[in-house]
Amino acid sequence: MSVAFRREGDDEHLEPKFEIPIPPGPNLVTARGKALIDARVIEMEARVAADLDETALKAAKRDLRYWQTRQVTAEVQPVPDGSVVAFGTRVTFLLNGKERVLGLVGDDEADPAAGLVSFSAPLARALMGAEEGELLPFNGREDAIEVLAVDAL
């Protein structure tokens, strides 16, 4: 029989499982972000230690590798003074006539629904270094953002 018609097993036809991608750049975190990462490592270690089937165990080990990498590379940043928009600050601003409040945090701590965005997001990068009362360009428009207030998270 030809090799083309022989089937060794179903595993060779499954989609490959890749590692969880690590965001590029430094792993800046707030003290809260570091605590969240530490908690995720403990959670994943417990999942790996649990009696799981082979597929769930592989997924848990993959997640554990990701969180351990994030834990080891975490760079806890000092609390900013709040005089300028920086990592770890909360900024209130006007964008397209709407007032918004965002906290600038690390990649793993970001939660847009809770008003926390990654420092590497385009809007966060546009705000970095701004002071209260400053007008900033964004999305091809000059003076698109007006910074109303800045304070530490």
UniProtKB/TrEMBL annotation:
Domain Transcription elongation factor GreA/GreB C-terminal: 83-148
This protein's record includes keyword NAD: no
Record SUPFAM superfamilies: FKBP-like
UniProt KW Nucleus keyword: no
One GO molecular-function entry: translation elongation factor activity
Transmembrane segments: none
InterPro entries per UniProt: GreA/GreB_C_sf, Tscrpt_elong_fac_GreA/B_C
Pfam families recorded: GreA_GreB (PF01272)
This protein's UniProt keywords: Elongation factor, Protein biosynthesis
Name of the protein: GreA/GreB family elongation factor
Organism: Novosphingobium mangrovi (ex Huang et al. 2023)
